[in-house]
# Entry
Amino acid sequence: MNRPGWLKPGIYGALFGAAFVGVAGFTWGGWVTGGTATERAMAMSRHDVVASMVPVCLQMARSDPARADKLAAIRAAPTYQRRDALMTAGWATMPGTDAPDRDLAQACLAALDVDGSTEPAESGVQEG
# Structure
């Protein structure tokens, strides 16, 4: 059986071209596998749920009769333990759940602004 002379180079070109397109697509084109897409979707939905629950946390903080004492305890805690102090205060425990949520506590802590700083932090880099 006679084959045309262009068939072998054409098949090799198609295979190498497909491999190049696949590598380029996954490396620079933004293509992802189904597992990566699922992980990203779960992370985005988790972030959105936490963001939607921050007002509930803030309302729980505002309506707590022992707010002043709990805020004082949070402010007295070292910076790296403030999230745990807010969780102990009970403000990061959503209605219908038994345990506080760490991500919600971190977001609520940022929204509470327990440091009381209203000015943005200065950069350590000098301009000029």
